[in-house]
Amino acid sequence: MALDLIGSWLLPGFGYLRKKRYARALILFIIIEGTFFLGLVLKGSVTPPILDPSGGGVISFLSFLIQVGNGLLSIISFAAVLAFKKMGDFQLAPGPFLAFFAGEQPHAFFEMGGFYLLVSGAMNYFSVVNFYDRYKNGRNGCAIEAHKS
Amino acid sequence: MGTINIVSIIYLSFVVAFILGLNDHDTPRKIIRATLRRWLKLLAALVVIGAVVLLLSHI
Lengths: 149, 59
Known about the structure:
The complex is a heterodimer of chains A (149) and B (59). Chain A is an all-alpha fold and 149 residues long. Chain A has helices at 2-10, 14-18, 22-41, 58-67, 72-89, 96-102, 110-135, 144-148.
């Protein structure tokens, strides 16, 4: 179960793939990763949280937590943002892959792109929790309404 | 810019409605019905919120 949950967080639909529910796995993967990809196209990125001791960075921290819900792609985007900043310090030019995942903060659509990443992360969290609810304690993976009836 | 915002509202509300519908049901018919119902409710709520914000910004 732990492998399925962590795998589903890293790669949307992974748990259902292991349970041989291929259609569900594919649909989740396409919708969630597709939304994330659109966010990157809009020059969004997973922005590092502002850790402010006075409490001013709460929204930033919560946004980061939710964006990270997408797992692997979020980690890549976050790492790309950090790498981009480091390369800027050393005046090195980043490649297209890094630039794509790092977003472009001054861009007009940056906030919009970040919101796409937020929705993608949140939906993956819901899907992972739903997977757990369907299969916990040896359940057969049916929808929760079926378990209740 | 306005077009992107409107398209984004429509697309993202669909994504939310669809994922929640997919999580709640198993059969395609139930998933589609739940998705459409949720999507329309969500869009209506967002339109109302947008109208209220527009109104308040002109006061």
